[in-house]
Structure formats: C-alpha cells, structure tokens
Amino acid sequence: MSRRELAEAVNTWLWRATGKRYSLDAHTIARYERGAVRWPGEHYRAGLRHVLGVEADAELGFRTTSVASAASDRPTLDLSRFGAEVELGSGAREFVDRIVVDSPSPTSVGRVDVEQVRATTTALAAVENLFGGALAGQAAAAHLRWSAGLVDARAEQVVKEALFEAVGNLAGVVAFSAFDSGNHSAADDCFRFALWCAGRGRSWALRAATLADMARHAAYLGNVDDALSLVELAQVRADRLSGTAQAMLSSLRARRLAQLGRVGEAVAEVDRADAHFAVRRPEEDPPWLVYYDDAEHQGTTGRALIPVAIAERDPGHAAERLTAAVRLHGSNYPRSRAFSRIRLASLTMSVGDPVEAAVIGCQALGDATSLRSRRVVGELRALDEAARRRADVPDVADLRHGLTAVLGER
Length: 410
Description:
This is XRE family transcriptional regulator. It comes from Saccharothrix lopnurensis. The longest helix has 24 residues, at 157-180. Helix 8 (157-180) packs parallel to helix 10 (204-220) and helix 12 (243-259) runs antiparallel to helix 13. By secondary structure, the chain is mainly α. 69% of the residues lie in helices and 0% in strands. It folds into 4 domains: 1-67, no CATH class; 110-202, no CATH class; 218-292, no CATH class; 299-410. The chain is built from 20 helices and no strands.
C-alpha cells in the first residue's frame, strides 16, 4: 500500500467504527515511519492495527515513552567539551530536512484563523517583494500546506468563504514566488489552487488577481496570446472590481497588445488604465492589491509603452513613466524599482543616449545585487544584449563588464 492508501484505509475504518471523520494523511504516515511521532493517538493506533492485521502496537514499531526515557533520548551538551565544534553527521540541508514540527490542522475554524492566514500572507509577501521568490517560496509553501488543511474544517459559511479567499491569496504568493524563482510547474499548480479557492470563496477580486498573475506567467513563457486571453477573462464582470483592479488589468492588457504589435490599441488601453487609476479608492481594495500604487502603475504602463517608443525611435512617454516609477517606488519594493530601472536603461540604450543608459544601468545593477529572482536575471540579460550593440562607447563597455560579473554569479 502507498502511504496515501494506508491513510485512507485507516480513516475509512475509523469512520465506520466511530462515526467520526479523521484526517490521517500520507505526510503523517511518513512521520510515523521516520519515528518523528513515536506514539500516535489511540484511534490512529487502533486503525493501523486493524488495517495492517496486527494485535500489538509494538508490531507497528511504536513504543510508549515515559517522561524519564524521553528525557534520556534527548541530545545533551557535554560541558567538558563546551566550545567544541558540533558534528551533524550529514550536510546542513540533509540534517535540517529531518526536522519536522508536528502541527495538525484544527477540526473547526473561526475568524481568528482567517486573520492568522492573512497576517502570514502579508509577512511572506513582504519578504518576496524585498528579496525575490527564492527566499520566500519555501517558507510560503510550508504555510500553504498547513493552511490548506483549514478549508476542510468546520466553519460558518461566511467564515468559510473568507477562509477560502485568505488561503487562495496565500496560494497566489506561493505561485508568484515559484514563478519568480523559475519553478514554473509549481507556479502553475499554485495558480490553479488559488483560482479554485477564489471560486469556492465567491471572490471575484481574487479571481481577477489570480488570472492577472497567470497572464504574467504565460507571457513570461512566451505564450502572449494565452496571456491576453487570461487578462480579458479577468476583466469579465469588471463591475465587481475596484478601480485599482481595473487599472491593473488594463495596464496588463496594454502590455499584451503591444507585444502582439497592436500598438494603437495598446496606447488606448493605457489611457483606460489611467482613467481607472484616477478614480480609484485604495481603502476599498483587497489586501493583495496594496502593491498597485502610483509607482507600480507608472512602471507597468511605462513597460507597456516600450514597444511604441522603440517603433517610433523615441523614449518619450515610456521613459517618463519608468523614470517616475523609479522615483516613486518605496523601500518595500526594491525588486519593482529594479525592474523599472533596468527597463529604462534598456530602452534608453536602444533609442536614446547610451552614456545616460550606462549610468542608469549601473544604478540598476546596484538594485539587483540583493535580489534572488530569475525574472530580474532575464531583464539584466536583455540589458546586456542592448548594451552589446553600443559596446564601442567606453561607459557602455564598463556597464557590460559589471553585467558580466553579476550574471556570472547567478
């Protein structure tokens, strides 16, 4: 039997025997096998004995542990060797992977649980914005695995819907972290889970935000047509979305239209994004839209206008918006500032003054130093390609030297 099959068999037997539902899972079975849990609850031991056809807990490998013997099993510090180097007996990652903290999900949830998920999501999103997806992704995924167990617990309907929305928002943070660090399959799965949560929670706002992030992911992977379809799907029932959400979606649609060469439509969509943004009411926005402020709007619409600027050989409005984004981005969003500055450098390098572009590019390198983001690396490579065509300019040659050093480390 697989671990999952064993867990399901035990849960089924317990339900028939007691009339109560239990939630033993494959992860817990694995912890039993490793000895991380030495003495499960009586119900689970009884279920395992029945399913596996044994009479004694000892035949399952379980041993009751007294307080005294448990204390004797704990590692102790030899004070006579205080200060000596500790040996792990394995690599650090392998050693830490064996550490499991048992924290079963509750059988019923309330508003406090919803608030805890929201607070956790806010903290993880802050880390992801500061340092990129590589650092935040693993921690966020662990929180998501635990939080996903909450949606199966008992709750009032209004709490249940709020919980689905909160867990879906957390799934979106995990998805974007995975996307940012190049784990595209994991990103796809998390986006799907977030979309499922949005449906169960009846949250049009979360649905739109998730589809928008899925569109960003699709475009990054080169599926621009799919990305445009996802954005337009997110705009369905726009009357249920805030002005900020509508501005965000219009700016994304403008970017996709520009990528497809539909320049006139892209410019018109930027105008619509500006109109929505002008009447937005931030106090009405859900928590996952807090990032879309004036700086983000300028950066996103500026990026959408880059193809127009290149076609017209004039940095124009695109450069103005990207410059404003760099100036407006606060310390909480260094990655967004880095994106805007790198794109401004690439645009200026392509159709503007290469010396000015080199100055901006060197500043962008400083922004990117603390970030662990595959997307940032991709933008730096695009800047390097633009700089290669102007390598005869000494300042540009110096920039390329710096780019080579940074990209070599990634």
